[in-house]
Write a structure and sequence with these properties.
Length: 238
């Protein structure tokens, strides 16, 4: 895309792939927002790395990818479900590469607090979140050698980190949630939006966990686009 007004670096949910984001990508491109998504079709087949820092490692890889696009319009970090957890960890890092471009964060159906049900879903088999193949629609994949899967044991430390750092994060945040989500209850992130300095909550009635592809997906995409463009404009003006 030539002369985008903003860029969104977005991580899909665990065990999914970036094709699930096609509706969102198309809608945002119509609003002159360039989207960098993660293609993790092979992520579920990769062995998980050892050690308790897998989620933090993924967040570090996301930060490195943000740094790769250092030049350009304001950058918004985002993710769906566990991908949003990775994006939030990246935004809360002590040093985020390319931080001067980061203008905000979009979290859809994202667990940012401990949820036993989510830990149970990840228990046993690691959840694939492979950041090795970053792509924009219609372009060649870009390689990055830092990738991995999420072990259940790494979720709790990740949530502990967010509990400490997210309340002091000086970035606008948009929580987008299906009000009928039975995996990550909307009330959790509605409460988070009330705790943060610059946060909004957009709830969509009748939508479940896959809010990006629910019946009202056009309204969801419009809400996200409005937030991204407003955050980018404020960042550019500041």
């Amino acid at each position: 895309m030539r002369n985008p007004l903003a860029e969104l670096l977005f991580v899909h949910g665990g065990g999914a792939e970036s094709g699930r984001l096609d509706r969102l990508v198309g809608a945002l491109r119509e609003r002159s927002i360039s989207v960098w998504a993660v293609n993790a079709a092979s992520g579920r087949r990769r062995p998980a790395p050892d050690g308790p820092a897998a989620m933090q490692d993924l967040a570090g890889a996301l930060g490195a990818l943000a740094d790769r696009a250092r030049r350009g319009p304001p950058l918004i970090l985002g993710g769906h479900s566990l991908g949003g957890t990775v994006a939030a960890l990246a935004a809360c890092a002590d040093t985020l590469p390319g931080a001067e471009r980061c203008a905000g964060m979009v979290l859809t159906s994202t667990p940012v607090s401990p949820l036993p049900r989510v830990e149970g879903l990840a228990d046993g088999a690691p959840v694939g979140l492979d950041l090795s193949r970053l792509y924009t629609p219609g372009s060649a994949a870009r390689e990055d050698d830092r990738a991995g899967s999420v072990r259940p044991s790494t979720l709790r430390p990740a949530w502990d980190r967010l509990a400490e750092r997210l309340p002091v994060l000086d970035l606008p945040v948009m929580f987008v949630h299906g009000m009928s989500d039975t995996i990550v209850p909307a009330r959790h992130n509605h409460a988070w939006a009330g705790r943060l300095k610059h946060a909004e909550f957009a709830g969509f009635h009748g939508s479940r966990h896959d809010v990006l592809n629910a019946t009202g997906h056009r309204r969801v995409a419009t809400t996200i686009a409005d937030f991204v463009l407003a955050a980018a404009l404020d960042h550019a003006a500041g």
